[in-house]
Specification:
501 residues, six-stranded mixed beta sheet, five-stranded antiparallel beta sheet, 14 helices, globular, FAD, Succ_DH/fumarate_Rdtase_cat_sf, FAD-dep_OxRdtase_2_FAD-bd, FAD-dependent oxidoreductase
Length: 501
């Protein structure tokens, strides 16, 4: 199956596929019965890893993907996987990159979580075991799957060289992390492995439900492709359908602050909570306090996003709310949560960059970008109190002179004034890359009931079960690490159980 090169085209293809199946009653379609040892539901990073791992353990595997393309959110991601003590790092002569070192970065980063999260998250023991397993996953991808890595380098937040980016992906201008959509190369190499192993990946074929036997154990799946319906007998099923970033119903129930922005998520359009629902129907129990993987703050007109994004991302920028006041230390790694919690939010821009000013002058819609020759005039154009905005920006520019941000304590290195009129404000909204939530699993990645007993034959990975690894902030490199690692482990355990090993 070809991985589409253009993200927009891939999204469109997925939407077309979903629409083509909408309204189809599977019961009216011809029935075909199939058998497998392991069925994998979803062909994103988690599912592809699960299928490869299960096949490598000797199982007969079938993969179902509801969209027309494979890869899911993993294909659109940068592609860099975090790991310490990997073979790739040893080859590069790295000596200060250990699993424990990255675990500390992960746990320390979680201290920046948005307020109100469940204090039990992240589960330190789960983070520890997952971080150690990341190393095995990176080595497995390289040695077993044949996926080549570039020389390890830092993530965007700096530090040691923990980022394992695809060798085929261009090096980003920053020299850190990975290039946009570099994840497609990982998916490509997993697909090549599955092709050689003879594992079919059926696209445009959503799984409708799980098949349970009289004891409540999973015995297969039901699926259809708009032309035929399938009943697949299997001894194990791995749910790898992603999260619920594009399910308005689930978002309104679980993370209502983000419900208005469902359509703006950069997660795959297939992330509608299907696997989570199937797991619950089979007896699984959801984690509480679901949240989102926040990534960017985007303009309502995407091309304007670059006008308030610098080489330091948002660290030297200023954001204000509907009161005309700053509401966050812009030095944080992600600003999506603070932005989502405002009635409205804007990024402030001045005319010091002529190209940005010219681009903003082209916008005539004040609901997207406003302009003013003074701070009060800008506030009026934005629909916020002009006096408050003037006070906010006067205080901020004074902080830039003194090097002391009394409001939020932003480091002096990122205190850069906004002094050249005319001034602009770009309306911004939060943009997510996925969700944190799903159903509870044990250390074998088996879905468990409320009493902790496993639903026999049912496994889950990735965003179907990722909640306990975070509080309320995402740490770069961990999303793909969890996807490929949980998929690898779940696939192997599913195969062993199905084959009676």
């Amino acid at each position: 199956m070809k991985i589409f090169e253009k993200t927009a085209f891939a999204f469109a293809a997925g939407i077309v596929a979903a629409c083509a199946q909408a309204g189809v009653d599977p019961a009216t379609l011809p029935l075909e019965q199939l058998t497998a040892d392991v069925v994998v539901v979803g062909a994103g990073g988690t599912g592809m890893a699960a299928a490869a791992s299960a096949a490598g353990a000797g199982a007969k595997v079938i993969v179902f993907e509801k969209l027309a393309m494979i890869g899911g959110s993993s294909a659109f991601a940068g592609g860099a996987i975090a790991a310490g003590g990997s073979n790739a790092q040893a080859k590069a002569g790295e000596k200060d990159t250990t699993p424990e070192g990255f675990m500390k970065i992960w746990l320390d980063d979680q201290k920046r979580s948005y307020k109100g999260g469940n204090p039990a998250y992240p589960d330190e023991q789960l983070v520890r075991s997952m971080t150690i397993a990341f190393t095995d996953t990176v080595n497995w991808l390289e040695s077993e799957i044949g996926h080549p890595f570039a020389k390890p380098r830092p993530f965007g937040y700096g530090g040691p060289n923990y980022a394992h980016a695809p060798a085929e992906s261009p090096v980003p201008a920053s020299g850190r992390g990975s290039s946009p959509a570099g994840g497609r190369f990982v998916i490509k190499n997993l697909k090549l492995y599955l092709d050689k192993a003879g594992v079919p990946v059926r696209t445009s074929t959503p799984v409708d439900s799980l098949i349970l036997d009289k004891s409540g154990a999973v015995a297969g799946v039901r699926a259809h492709d708009g032309k035929n319906r399938y009943e697949v007998s299997a001894k194990a099923v791995v749910l790898a359908t992603g999260g619920f970033a594009h399910s308005r119903e689930m978002m309104e129930k679980l993370v209502p602050a983000y419900a208005p922005y469902v359509d703006k998520s950069v997660a795959t359009v297939g992330a509608t909570g299907d696997g989570i629902r199937m797991a619950v129907d089979a007896g699984g129990v959801m984690y509480d306090d679901a949240w989102v993987i926040g990534l960017y703050v985007s303009s309502l007109d995407p091309k304007l996003s670059k006008t308030y994004t610098s080489k330091d991302k948002y660290k030297d920028r200023v954001f204000v709310n509907e009161k005309g006041e700053r509401f966050v230390n812009e030095d944080l790694p992600y600003l999506t949560d603070p932005v989502a919690m405002q009635g409205a939010a804007w990024a402030i821009v001045d005319s010091s960059n002529a190209k940005n000013a010219a681009l903003l002058n082209e916008c005539k819609d004040p609901k997207i970008a406003a302009k003013g020759n003074t701070w009060r005039e800008l506030g009026e154009a934005m629909g916020v109190p002009g006096e408050a905005l003037e006070r906010t920006m006067t205080e901020y520019n004074k902080a830039c002179e003194t090097g002391v941000d009394k409001t939020f304590g932003k480091p002096a290195a990122y205190l850069k004034p906004f002094a050249k009129a005319p001034f602009y404000a770009v309306r911004v909204i939060p943009q997510t890359g996925g969700t944190m939530g799903g159903v509870k699993v044990n250390d074998r990645f088996e879905v468990v009931r409320a009493d902790g007993t496993p639903v026999k034959g049912l496994y889950a990975g990735g965003e179907v079960m990722n909640r306990p690894y975070y509080n309320r902030v995402y740490t770069s490199g961990t999303g793909l690490g969890i996807a490929y690692t949980s998929g690898r482990i779940a696939g192997e355990n599913a195969a062993r159980a199905a084959l009676g090993k």
